[in-house]
Each structure stands twice: as structure tokens, then as C-alpha cells.
Amino acid sequence: MSLLALVAGTLGVSQTIATTVVSIVLTGSTLISIILGITAILSGGVDAILEIGWSAFVATVKKIVAERGKAAAIAW
Questions:
Q1: What is the pLDDT of residues 4-41, one digit of tens each?
Q2: CA-to-CA distance for 7 and 29, rounded, in angstroms?
Q3: Which secondary structure element, helix H or strand E, spans residue 61, and what is its range?
Q4: What's this model's pTM, rounded to 2 decimal places?
Q5: Angle between helices 15-27 and 54-68 (to 10 degrees)
Q6: Residue 50 CA from chain centroid, whole number
Q7: CATH number of domain containing 23
Q8: Rounded to an integer, what distance in angstroms lies between the CA atom of residue 19 and that of residue 75?
Q9: End-to-end CA distance of the chain
Q10: Residue 55 neighbours by CB under 8 Å, 6+ apart
């Protein structure tokens, strides 16, 4: 399962939104800007992030990118 599919599945969003989330996680400069960006594009997906915890979510996305690549993270 790719990271984009995993993100999309976990958040219950489209792969396009999952791609945006992964990009925000990988390039975000501050926690606030990341949260604001994700909140702007995901109304329902934020609950999923809050359930597992933001730090755990970011760590998981970065780990999947490092191990399997960006496409895998987006699929997750």
C-alpha cells in the first residue's frame, strides 16, 4: 500500500487531498502552518489526525516516505 493510499484511507479523503497532506507534512515549516493547511483542505480528516496524534501522524508519514517513497506515503 502506498503512502498516498494510506493517508487517503486513514483520513477518508481523496488521493489528491492525501497528496497535499503529505506535501504539507514534508515541507511544512511550523506546526501551526501545517495544521492550518490541513484544516483548510480537510474538514473531516482532521479528526483522524487528532485520534492518532499529530506527532505520530507526522512520524508515520515521514517513516513511510523514507522507507517506501512519497507515493507510498500518499497511498497510505
A1: 566 666 666 666 777 777 777 777 656 666 676 666 66
A2: 20
A3: helix 54-68
A4: 0.42
A5: 100
A6: 12
A7: 1.20.225
A8: 8
A9: 6
A10: none
**Cβ neighbours of residue 53 closer than 8 Å, sequence gap 6 or more:** none
CB 20 within 8 A of CB 31: no
Tell me the per-residue pLDDT of 45-54, one tens digit each, with 9 for 90 and over: 666 666 667 7
Alpha-carbon torsion, ordered 42, 31, 20, 27, to 10 deg: 180
Please identify which residue in the block is written with the cell numbers 474538514: 43
Place of cell 488521493: 15
Residue 64 sits in which domain range? 3-75
